[in-house]
Amino acid sequence: RSGEMAKLTQFIDNEVFQAYATYATIVLVKMMLMSPITAYFRMTRKAFANPEDTASFGKGDSAKKYLRTDPDVERVRRGHLNDLENIVPFLGIGLLYALSGPDLYTALLHFRIFVGARITHSFAYLIPLPQPSRGLSWAIGYAVTMSMAYKVLKTALYL
Amino acid sequence: RSGEMAKLTQFIDNEVFQAYATYATIVLVKMMLMSPITAYFRMTRKAFANPEDTASFGKGDSAKKYLRTDPDVERVRRGHLNDLENIVPFLGIGLLYALSGPDLYTALLHFRIFVGARITHSFAYLIPLPQPSRGLSWAIGYAVTMSMAYKVLKTALYL
Amino acid sequence: RSGEMAKLTQFIDNEVFQAYATYATIVLVKMMLMSPITAYFRMTRKAFANPEDTASFGKGDSAKKYLRTDPDVERVRRGHLNDLENIVPFLGIGLLYALSGPDLYTALLHFRIFVGARITHSFAYLIPLPQPSRGLSWAIGYAVTMSMAYKVLKTALYL
């Protein structure tokens, strides 16, 4: 058993894999922050989706009026969904890319640009910044993921 | 080739990795169950999103009235999306955590509490249970994932 | 370091893992294509979700009328969300399945059917094809993922 464990930890001793682990974790934690931000806007805007969430505001119509959508809440939710749509491909393709033997410098470049772009995207969505800030940061993250997908398929294509 | 295969299966022979494989699979299967539950409510409530799904109810206005939202359907869909938002970070961070060399007992504790919290969350959402059941089960899963993220970054930080 | 790197690339030298890498990347790239398709329909149908996206159409009411939902945009978005709900389980369970030592032929069968089913699902959703095209392609991908989940739990169950 200690031999097996050694093998698994050797895995994370590889620098490219460490870089993947670091940036994947950072961008996932960033995505997770969208949840408390949604909760913050739901509470300050008093805009909820479930009757049981408004029970503390009283019963009947006095609580029912808080079952509504709010532009600020919907904005955070769109940002969260956009994160899912883009970070899921990064997670999967990025892991395979890290295992495909890229050189450390190139791998770091991909991971850093992706994570920087997604953090920028969140600020552009939440503040919001005028376009094309959000569109551009989305496109950069998208292009980085496509570049990693190309490397994976070039290295490992087995149809 | 048999040597390579041996290496890959050795991977899943590690107990921490086995635990990750088990709990990740269970919580993903749990998430997948939200799809047939949505379909069940769509059919019993006759509330569909696509015109082609209501074709069996006849043509024109007689079918069109089933293109509507229903509170029970929307509730399951919110639960499903909440699963995606929380289980995706668990999948990615949990895998890296399993590779970061935690001891078996601590790893099992993390995986079990996360999966227990998410199963509770689904029941709390679908029944629904009064708050703070749903909020608390969400928060527990969230905290477990953050704890694993901390361990990953402590072990593998490479910026 | 070169020894570690060798170990990681040996990983992707395994044929089952190569097959997983190939099909996971293809189906993730397919999912990513839903984003530009959504953008295409948003622009041709002039239906946007954010005020900052309509700024180029002028100010005030002339731009505000483009903040609306459109059936074609919503259709692509539902297809995209369905992808997330189904491809995320495939990614996680498929990776563990690839590490659980399946024979190459069986693994290829699972990966090919899943990816074929999801590509069919997208066409069925976007054209749209009459039911049960979409329902059936969804069910096939679902069944393949469940079959892999069964193999993972049979191989690695550690509760």
Automatic annotation (TrEMBL), chains A, B, C:
Chief location category: endoplasmic reticulum
Coiled-coil region list: none
InterPro entries: MAPEG-like_dom_sf, Membr-assoc_MAPEG, MGST1-like
GO cellular component: endoplasmic reticulum membrane; mitochondrial outer membrane
Cell compartments where the protein resides: Endoplasmic reticulum membrane; Mitochondrion outer membrane
Broad EC category: transferase
Reaction it catalyzes: RX + glutathione = an S-substituted glutathione + a halide anion + H(+)
Enzyme Commission numbers on file: 2.5.1.18
Ranges annotated as spanning the membrane: 20-41, 87-115
UniProt keyword terms in alphabetical order: Acetylation, Endoplasmic reticulum, Membrane, Mitochondrion, Mitochondrion outer membrane, Transferase, Transmembrane, Transmembrane helix
GO-annotated molecular function: glutathione transferase activity
Oligomer and partners: Homotrimer; The trimer binds only one molecule of glutathione.
Family, similarity comment: Belongs to the MAPEG family.
Function text: Conjugation of reduced glutathione to a wide number of exogenous and endogenous hydrophobic electrophiles.
PANTHER family: MICROSOMAL GLUTATHIONE S-TRANSFERASE 1
Name of this protein: Microsomal glutathione S-transferase 1
Organism listed in the record: Ceuthmochares aereus
Gene that this sequence comes from: Mgst1
